[in-house]
TrEMBL record:
NCBIfam families: HAD-SF-IA-v3, Pyr-5-nucltdase
PANTHER family per UniProt: HALOACID DEHALOGENASE-LIKE HYDROLASE, PUTATIVE-RELATED
This protein's name: Uncharacterized protein
InterPro entries per the UniProt record, alphabetical: HAD-like_sf, HAD-SF_hydro_IA, HAD_sf, Pyr-5-nucltdase
Single annotated GO MF: hydrolase activity
């Protein structure tokens, strides 16, 4: 076997991670707590009728990636920070415990690790801190990174006229892809623009990146854009997922080559280092 073949470069250079229900299990209950807080926000702060919030929230999440993106799309105007502190700030963070197993797994893979979350920076930072993972990632791409300006110009003049589900989306910011749904001013997964922006900001080549997320639609979009995909927290194969892990703790069982390739890479680096040294001495 030629030396080049034996010590070829690893196929991957970057690992891209979602946070919620990916770096910690769904059983933590954060997902339900979040939904509850969003529904409370819709009633208390936006004046939406209690008996409508459950279904409306489901529909907005389904159509827009996040409930917040959906609420903005259909015309509600509110402060992003206030929303995030109401929805995420009240979560029972005490339930998250340091995850030494995951920390060791992450630190033992000397590949770039980047966070890609729809959540706000305060939530992502606090979650990583509680899990004991705050120093395991090179970069965090989150709500504020993707939405640096307050882009809320796309909204109805009279929010009380909004009737979700009535197809009465008389919004001046119609999507240009022919959808009847109004376009949201928020950039978030699973939309292509959000992935492209994350790739640009973190200098990510999707062809050499593995993407971990618990959301099937995020995984499917990631696959479409060239990422190698790992669906986390599920047990059934789905189209678009290259790997499926019941827990993020199973990375090594599913992708042992990440460690094996790294061992080979260390050997290559040692060898290359010697050559470079020799060359400079003889020059
Ligand atoms: Mg998630």
């Amino acid at each position: 076997m030629a030396y080049e073949d034996q010590y070829q470069q690893s196929k991957y250079d970057t690992l891209l991670f979602d946070v919620d229900d990916t770096l910690y299990p769904l059983s933590t209950g954060f997902s339900n707590e979040c939904a509850k807080n969003i529904q409370e926000y819709m009633v208390q702060k936006l004046g939406i009728q209690q008996n409508k919030v459950f279904q409306l929230n489901q529909e907005l999440y389904k159509n827009y990636g996040t409930s917040m993106a959906g609420l903005k799309a259909i015309g509600y105007d509110f402060d992003n920070d206030e929303y995030h502190s109401f929805v995420h700030g009240r979560l029972p963070y005490g339930k998250l415990k340091p995850d030494h197993v995951l920390r060791n797994l992450l630190l033992s893979m000397p590949l770039r690790k980047v966070i890609f979350s729809n959540a706000d920076n305060a939530h992502v930072s606090k979650t990583l801190r509680k899990l004991g993972l705050e120093d395991c990632f090179e970069r965090i791409i989150c709500f504020e990174t993707l939405n640096p300006n307050d882009k809320t110009s796309c909204r109805f003049d009279d929010k009380n006229d909004v009737q979700f589900g009535s197809e009465n989306f008389d919004n001046p910011c119609q999507s240009d892809i022919g959808s009847i749904l109004p376009k949201t001013p928020i950039l978030c997964k699973p939309f292509e623009d959000a992935f492209e922006q994350a790739f640009k900001l973190a200098n990510i080549n999707p062809q050499t990146t593995i993407f971990f997320d618990d959301s099937i639609r995020n995984i499917q979009k990631g696959k479409q854009l060239g990422l190698t995909t790992v669906l986390v927290g599920k047990s059934n194969r789905i189209s678009g997922a290259d790997y499926v892990l019941e827990s993020i703790h199973n990375i090594k069982e599913a992708l042992p080559e990440l460690w094996e390739e790294n061992d080979k890479k260390s050997e290559t680096m040692k060898y290359t280092g010697n050559v470079a040294f020799g060359t400079s001495v003889t020059a």
